[in-house]
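User: Hi! I'm working on a homework problem where we have to compare a predicted structure to a textbook description. Could you give me the structure for the chain below?
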Amino acid sequence: MQAAVNERLEEIRRAAETAVEKPAGLGPDIDLARFDARAEHATVASMQSLERQVREAALAVGVDASEAGRAGSYMQIDRSTVYEAVQDAYRGQIEIMSTTEAIERFPEVVERYWWRAVAPDKDKYTSRAALHQTEGYFIRVKAGEHVDRPIQSCLLVSENRFSQNVHNVIVVEDGASANVITGCTIHPEVEEGIHIGVSEFYVGRGASLTFTMIHNWAESFQVRPRTGIVVEEGGTFVNNYVLLREVRSIQSYPSARLAGENARAVFNTIVYGLGDSVIDLGAEVILEAPGCRAESVARSVARDRSAVWSRGRLVGRHDDVKAHLDCRGIVFGHDASMYAIPELAAEGAPRAELSHEAAISPIAEEEVTYLMSRGLPKDEAVSMITRGFVNLEIPGLPAPLRASIDRAIAETTAESM
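Assistant: Happy to help. Predicted structure tokens:
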């Protein structure tokens, strides 16, 4: 087994080395030589013992240091795993650890999952994560186990000009279910850096994974997630993504492959472009088997001088598949830009049902006038309408996280008026 593992790791290394200078197909190119990955931190006995600013930054992205109502937690600062724990009630049901530990303890992880859903030579960012990985988390939910409380993880950058190159793997085995909340953020004193997050999700037969990611960055911070998802027969994958703060640039285009009959995928995205942010986000779903279904819903706002790209691609490869894209945006001001780019493809599947709705439009004057007639100032009326627009209902979110997102939306709209 070890010989096969070593051969696989060598294969990954060789592939990654061919892409060291390979630019991504989308998004601004980044000079990675400006960033390093040296900072290390000691482990902590509990998340409560982390410094106050770190706890507050984590809470802002839905990660509660008290661990109340959580099944397990993972915390990483820069390149170091500082905390990992499974609550007593869930021991034997789930495993949480760094990916470095996982591939050492479980050789099958390398064989079955390691760089199987994301190619190490996709671009310079996957290459950097493969050749210079700075941990990342491994979460596995055992077959048939239904984890009724969220599992939380936080990936935090605390050093300026740090390159956080994480590789995350989530495996939900056959018949299991889980809700994972990941918050990616920075220490308040960080101004510049890059987060490269390679994530691979594997949803087994009849299994279910709801994955919620909340990003909170800074005006000079760069972000390059790379995500691949595989969903087997009867499995369900739900992806929720929220970005409400300014960022220098972010480019992400997760791809979900519905590989088994009656597999399902749902993507919900809320984006608020502020300042000079360059935001290029989307999702691809490939429907390969009969009965597969998919939905992708995005709500985007562009303000100030921000530029927002909202992409979506549905690929039907069997006649008995259905999928829909719903992409809507609002642009405030003449200096902001937005681009809605839906794409549908039927590949050898003439009876596949693929559809989209895409719209970029201003707030209706009659809505503003109505609220003003009820006594609201114009700015407050516009703020209220904007909150309603981006406040996409995301089913299955824990109540505290839902409240946190609602607060962030309210604060963001109020601050940007």
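For your comparison, note the following. The radius of gyration is 21 Å. The longest strand covers residues 192-203. Good luck with the assignment!
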